[in-house]
## 1
Amino acid sequence: MLVTMDKIVGWSKRKGFIFPGSEIYGGFGNSYTYGPYGSELKNNIKAYWWKRFIHEREDMTGIDGDIILHPRTWEASGHVEGFNDQQVDCKECKTRMRADHLVEDALGVDCEGLPDEEVSKLIKDNNIKCSKCGSENLTEVRKFNLMFQTQMAKVGENSTAYLRPETAQAIFLEFKNVLDSTRLKFPFGIGQIGKAFRNEITPGNFIFRRLEFEQMEIEYFIREEDWEELFVMWQKEMKAWCDEIGLSRDKCHDLEHDKEKLSHYSKRTVDIEYDFPFGKKELYGLAYRTNFDLSQHEKFSGKKLRYRDSETNEEFVPHVLEPTFGVDRTVLAVICDAYNEESLEDGTSRVVLKFVPKLAPVKVAVLPLMKKDGLPKKAQEVFKKVKVFGNCEMDISGTIGKRYRRQDEVGTPVCVTIDYDTLEDESVTIRDRDTMEQKRVKISELLNILGESYFN
Ligand code: ATP
C-alpha cells in the first residue's frame, strides 16, 4: 500500500488531527492547527520525550526559556551574520525559490558552503529553470536571513529583537544558573521543548517545513576528550527513541555530513533521515559543536561560563553535543509510519493507524452496545476506571462495527464493549486494534489486563 501525502493530508483534516490554519479567511501561508486528536498526539510525543530524556536519565534536567531573548544572543551565536539560505527569484512569475534546492534537484549537487556566485554560475551554466513557470530568467543568488525580526515598544539600542530560530540558545544563556542551582556533575545535559521560528523561503510538504514549529533540544555538556564516545552514546539514544515511538527501522537512515562542509565550530554532524512520502529528508540531527557557543557568549557578555571540577579544581569552558528533535516532523513521521489501509477477509477494508499505545491520542474507547437498558450507565462506570490511562472516549452512536472502524481510524489501541451480559456477570469484551481479536474479561481485572498489554 502506497502512503501518499494526499492521503495523509485528507485523513488529517477529516479525522481532526491537523487542519489548514486560518481556513475561514482562505488559509494563511504555511499555517496549521493541530486539532483535537492531533494536539493529543503532539502532547504525548512531547510528554514522552520529557519523561524519556529528562526524568529517566540522572544526568539531565530541563528549562523553559523565552522565545524573545536578548538580541546580543543572536550576534554571539552567529545567527545575525550567518543564518542564511540562498534565494533566487524568477523575474517572470516572481516565484521565490531556495537556490540550493533548485541546483540539488536539477544536478544532484549539494551546495552547502558554496558562495552565492558559484551557485549562480551553476544555475546559469546548466540552464536551470524556474520550478514554477520554467523560465530561465532568474535573478542572481542572494543570501536571505531566516530570523523573524520584531520591534519592541521601548526605543533604543535593543528595540529590534528576534523570534528565536532554535530553542538551544536559551540553554547556553542559563548554563551557569542551572549549574549553580542544581547538583549536576559532568557530563550533564539540559533539555528544552518549545517553539522556534524561521522565515523559510519555501515552506511546504505539509508540516515538514514550517515558519513556526516546535523543537525538543538537548545541550549535553562534556569534556573535550570524551566527545567521540558520548557522540556514539547519543546516536544510540536517538535510535532507541525512534524505535520506541514506532518508526520502522528500515525507514530511518543516518546521514554523515561531509567533514569539509561542516561549519568551522562543528566537528561532526549526523542527521537521522526518514523516508517521508515525498522523499528521504532530515528528521533529527546530532552535532558536536565544540565549545563554540559558550565561548562566544563569554566573549559577548563578559561573564564566565565555566565548569569547575570540585576534585581537581580545574576550570574550563565545556564542550557540547546537541541532539535535536523536531516535534512537527516527529508527528508527521509517526503518522506516516502508523497509517495503514487493510483489506479484510469479509471483502471490506479499513484505515487503521497503528500508533504505539503511549502516543495514541485516545487510549481506550468504551462502547455500550445499546443506548438503553442501563448500558450507558454501566459504560460510564467503566469509563471512569480506564481514564487512568489518559485520554479515553465514550462512543454510543452507530453500529458496533462502525464504531470499531472509527476508533481504528484515529488509532485507539483497544475498545471495551459493554453488552447485556455485562449487567449480569460484570464482564466486558476487549477488542484489539491491530489483530481485531476480541476477548471477554472481568471488569475487576480490566485495568490489570489493559495495563499489562498496552500501557505498561
Ligand atoms: P533543514 O536542513 O531541513 O532546513 P536544519 O538542518 O536547518 O533542517 P536544524 O537547524 O538542525 O534543521 O533544526 C533542528 C530540527 O528542527 C530539525 O532536525 C527538524 O526536525 C526541525 N526543523 C528545522 N527547521 C524546521 C522547519 N522549518 N519546520 C519544521 N521543523 C523544522
## 2
Amino acid sequence: MARLANRIALVTGASRGIGEAIAIRLAEEGAHVAINYTSDRSRPLAENVKAQVEAHGVKAIVVQADVGNKRQVEAMFQEVNDKLGPVEILVNNAGIAPFEPFLKVTEETWDRTYNTNVKSIFLCSQLAAKSMIEKRYGKIINVLSTASLVVTSPVIPHYQSSKAAANMLTKGMAIELGKYNINVNAVGPSTVDTDMCTDYLADPEIRAKEIEANPMKRLGTARQIGDAVVFLASEEAMQINGHLLMVDGGLTVKAAQPDDHMEH
Ligand code: NAP
C-alpha cells in the first residue's frame, strides 16, 4: 500500500533539482502533486516533471509563482485548491544561493535570498496551515541545508543565515501547529549536484575536496532528499515534530581536524 495514497502535496521549486526528485518520490507513494516553479523558461521542465509524476498514476498540475511574493502565493494556493484540493503535504523546497562573497552582496541579493529562502516558508506555511487546521492533518517539510547549522563552503553568509533562520522558523511553527496534528519538520542536505552547484562543482579540485570532506566519501543525491521527505510525510514519522533531519553523510557532526588528511 502506498504510504501517501491520495494525499495532496505541493512542492515549491519542483521544476528541477531536489524539488523534482521530491515530487517524483511523493508520486511514487501515491500522492497527487502540484509542481511549483517561477521562471518562464522553466515551464517545459515543470511540464516534464508533471509527466513523470503522472506516470505513477496520480494527478499533477504545474503552477507558476514566485514563492516570495504574497499575491502570487495566494493565487498559487487558490489554483491548487481548485484543481487538486486543499494542500495536505507542503514541501517548502524553493531556494536560491547566489554565490557572492559577503563584501560584494547587494541589498537586492540579500532581499531576494531572504524572500525566496525564508519569507516563502512563512507565506506558504501560513496559507497551508489554514486548511490543515480544519482537517486536523498536515505535514510541512522545509528543505534546509548543512548551512542551517554550520558555515559550509563556499562561504556565503546571506544564504547560510537564511537557512539558519528557516531552521528556527521550522521549530517555532512546529510548536504552534502541533496541537492541530500538523507536523513541521525539515531536511538538511549537504552538497547535491544540481543546477545550484553546477559552476561550483565544475572545478574538479573542488568536487574532489567536497567528496573527501564528507564522512561517507560521496556527494548526496536529490533522490535521497526525496526519501527523507517521504519519511517525514508518512505516518511512521507522526511523533516527529520540529526536527531537522540531516541528510549530509555526517558532515555537520564532524569538526575539521588537523589530521583530516591522514588515513586511519
Ligand atoms: P536548483 O536546482 O537551483 O532548483 C531551484 C528550484 O527552485 C527551481 O525549481 C526554481 O524554479 C525554484 N525557485 C527558485 N526561486 C524561486 C521562487 N522565487 N519561487 C518559486 N520557485 C523558485 O536548486 P536545488 O539544488 O534543487 O535546491 C533546492 C533546495 O535545496 C533549495 O532550498 C536549496 O537551498 C536546498 N539545498 C541545496 C543543496 C545543493 O547542494 N544543491 C544543498 C543544501 C540545500 P525555476 O526553475 O523556475 O527557476
